[in-house]
Write a structure and sequence with these properties.
By secondary structure, the protein is an alpha/beta fold. The chain has helices spanning 19-31, 39-46, 64-67, 79-89, 139-153, 172-182, 197-204, 225-235, 255-263, 331-344, 350-356, 362-389, 418-426, 465-485, 505-511; strands at 101-102, 166-169, 186-192, 208-214, 237-243, 270-274, 307-312, 325-328, 403-407, 430-431, 433-434, 456-460. It folds into two domains: 25-108 and 402-511, no CATH class; 127-361, Type I PLP-dependent aspartate aminotransferase-like (Major domain) (Aspartate Aminotransferase, domain 2). This is PLP-dependent transferase.
Length: 512
Amino acid sequence: MPTSLSVAATPEPSRPTTPRFKDVVLDVLRRARSEKDSEAHQIFRDAAGNKPKNAIAMPQTVNPDEETVPGIQHPGSTGVIYCSDRAIANGFSYANAHAWANLGQGAPEVGPIPEAFERPTTISLPEDSLEYAPTTGVKALREAVANLYNDTYRQGKESQYTYENVCIVPGGRAGLSRLGAVIGDVYTSYQIPDYTAYDQMLSAFRRLVPVPTALEHENQYKLDLKSIKKDIETQSLAVILASNPRNPTGQVIKGDELKELVALSRDGTTVILDEFYSWYIYPGDDEEFGKSVSSAEYVEDVNEDAAIIVDGLTKNWRLPGWRVCWVIGPRNLITALSQSGSFLDGGANHPMQLAAIPMLNPETVKAEKIALQKHFKMKRDHILKRLKHMGLPVDLPPNSTFYIWLNLESLPEPINNGLTFFEELLKEQTIVIPGIFFDINPAHRRNLFKSPCHHFVRLSFGPPLKDLDMGLDAIERVLRKAKKEGMSSFGHSYKKSVDGSFVRPEDLVTHV
């Protein structure tokens, strides 16, 4: 993809600097071909839990943050948490959040949007809601979830979901954790790139044996069903874990492809699909607004097919703070999830579960889908248009979710990799998520420069339009600066901690 940026001229940094610092910076810029040469990558590796598990030509040092409590091993933070911590080190706080553009957030805007149902401002607190809820959830909410899926995806089918096929959980991660706790010693397939929390899940539950499949950008990151079937036969895959629609690439499988994937659940393989973006579908034809995607449509027998759905209020209903989600699957799975929930999380918030019940009315949901899809399609088209104007056209526009998987390869070094681009945007009070966090890598062995996600960032168009424009303005400033001043001011001078300290040149030299 062509770029309008040129790096033919490399002027001196405008701020005063010592010769030693200048020499180090220019050396790094010339030779940043691996982690050890990049300041942004060193900051990442210094964060607790992010050391590689084998030598990759980097000195193996002890991080005191990882060694202070005997017997504790840091799992490494999810991408959003790491990026939030780095933003805080650069001056971000929740008190001044309005001054920042958070294009990294994995949540939709929660305020009113045109034609959507009114945002709840109060909830009832009946006396029985002050008690613990069952670990499987309030029965009435479980019934409402089952009814919604039957009405939306299973009309006319003999096998119907009941409350016994639904487990209410306190958030999507809790649902995944409950599932991870009950999966036995089996090979579990996952794809690259995919949702960042899968990395921690696959690392934490040691009985799972993770088996990766790298999806190809050239193939629009589609699941290769032929390859999956071969892996089932040759490697005895027992579990397939994937998001659909896909985070972060914004692609979706549906129709015959999704039907074929679900069919694997009838042949000895459990299929777990994270369907949190099932409403975020952007049709080309206005008459298609209001349609959603779910594997529930292709399940034949709800108690025999080993097809598991994870979803909830977080994305589709735009209520991430409620932490009310669900897992749908065979009846005997729900019993197992109740048991794992009793020691993992104790169950979802009781009053919020009761308040959620009327929101699952099928007629309310149909109207909400249309409002959501129209609004988010408008934002998607807006951000794509602005990126194209900047010389960053998106070669794989999202047809679902609220994410753009932005390829930076056309930019000059060092801002052509996600971690450095992210650090430069922090200077502009803007947050994005580097692509390496979606390279699910449970053993943390891969050199980040070798990651297939290294040259990408994920941009979210979940925030309100004014916040999107703030972030896009920041990206434009970075690109304008690169074109006008050259690259000597990029790739260094990053704040290391909240106290305002910077990476010292002498520390950088030890790694070069």
